[in-house]
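To: structure subgroup
Subject: Chain for Friday's discussion

All,

I'm putting the inputs and outputs inline so they're searchable in the archive.
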Amino acid sequence: MPELTGDEPLSGPSRSLWRDRDFGVFWAAQTLSVVGDSFALIALPLLVLHATGSVAQMGLLTGAAGAAAVGAGVFAGVVVDRLDRRKLLIGCDLARLVLYALIPLVWVFGPQIWLLYVVLPLAEAVGMLFSVTYVTAVRALVPGDRITEANGRLNATAAAAGVIGPLLAGVLAAWLGPAAAVAVDAVSFGVSAVCLSFVRFKGRPESGGEDARGPQRESMGKELAAGAAFLRRHPVLRSLTVLLSFFSFLTLGLNDLIIYHLKHDLGQGDGAVGTVFAVGALGTVVGALFVAPIRHRLGFGATWISGVALCGLALAAIGSVGAVAGIAALTAAFLGCVSVSGTCSMSLRQEVTPDHLLGRVTSAFWTIHYSAAPIGAAVLTWAAQRYGTESVCLVAGLCCLLIAVLALFTPVRARRPEQAGPVVAEPVRGGSGQESAHSGS
């Protein structure tokens, strides 16, 4: 039976996503944007490594950018729930176009590491706002019984675009330098902004006016707390938030570890780095394509827990493998399982959260579980430089496996949490009464 959120009619199955124009344009925009993002994924660490030769410096920059994202995440949900979501998406893309374009322009005159510490945190802060808006956009574009399918398609095609992106990024970085690859990322944000200008959301007013959220708003502090309060009341989301806090701490710095292992430990070139991440993107494609049928067959709990467990096993082995092909295969396995578990987690939040709270719940969820991740990235990359990538990957992988075991003793193990009884949310505006999460049929 299709999973329902309460926002769509019960008279029959919803229209196929293939015939949904707005979702199709949104889908294309995000796929094109990921092509550019995959260039920056390779180029930015290479810029630092070429200029400094230090993996610790790479980790510090990753940590600084992550800290900025966490700070932005505190307020992102309130902004998203108040303002026009389409305009927010377009504005975020245009802002990142300008920020990333500064890097290749300045790099013409020579490496300027300080600029990365300015641009990347700002870009990540804007990216957090975009990401929170993105989650609410999917909910506003498709009916509840299509959410997991829509998320799977978005992730699959984005990952497919990411297959060729890292390959081209590695070639371009080796030919013209990493700064040129960053320029491609900047252009992709402009293309995405143009595409998004043609999208119209459904299901609620695009404007964040009073007609969308009642006659008056509470104070900023109460609005900020509303998302966290809903997470606290929902047993599965509460447990996921805690478990993913540890998982993010252990895995945010993985890209830096893989690049350092390939270039420092194995002496590989930029092309090998691009190849590994391109193959890894194939894993994301496979995971995204199969997450909906896997979740339908196994249920939420088994799907999420097994995905995290397999992530741990793959991570534990990456640092000990000396062949590029082996590292690529393990990276694909890791990212494929991240895709499965991540899509399940995001879809569940979209299914059970009232629309007027979705921005704040998403923001609170990401801010809380991501808050320690920048520290983890800095710690893991520092440890890799001091003790070697093999030991660090092994310890981090075993800890991820432990997270999966702990999840077996929490409400996360539930097969169909979206069909549980409604969770009552605290009032978030004066005179509006109580809101409840939508439950499945």
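Points worth raising on Friday:
The beta strands are 424-425, 435-436.
Residues 1-13, 204-216, 424-441 have pLDDT under 50 and may be disordered.

D.
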